[in-house]
Specification:
The protein is 43% helix and 16% strand. With 90 residues, it is α+β, with helices and mostly antiparallel strands. It has a three-stranded mixed β-sheet with strand order 1-3-2. Helix 1 runs parallel beside helix 2 and helix 2 crosses helix 3. The protein has one domain. A hairpin with a 4-residue loop joins strand 2 and strand 3.
Length: 90
């Protein structure tokens, strides 16, 4: 089960940074908590979204992304596998 805490958000951000993605918080007119700009390997998170929306948005992106597991440490690898096996209900 995915918990909606700042610690979970920080773990996701660190995982993305380790995988080579930049994470930015910007104001925007997008409805989800995050969006992926593929050509620049950047994740943009709506800074005005609540914590739950941010986590769900990033989790949905992570579930669909192909990340090189060799870049991650054991804990990050386990966390990513747990995320990919969790069914999200929006």
């Amino acid at each position: 089960m995915l918990t909606f805490t700042n610690h979970t958000l920080e773990k996701m951000e660190l995982l993305l940074k380790t995988a080579g993605y930049k994470v930015r918080y910007e104001k925007g007119n997008f409805k989800t908590g995050a969006c992926l700009l593929l050509s620049s390997r950047m994740i943009v998170i709506n800074r005005f979204s609540n914590l739950e929306s941010k986590i769900l948005g990033i989790a949905e992106l992570l579930r669909g992304m192909e990340i090189d597991y060799n870049l991650l440490d054991e804990k990050q690898h386990a966390f990513l596998l747990q995320l990919k096996q969790t069914k999200l209900q929006l």
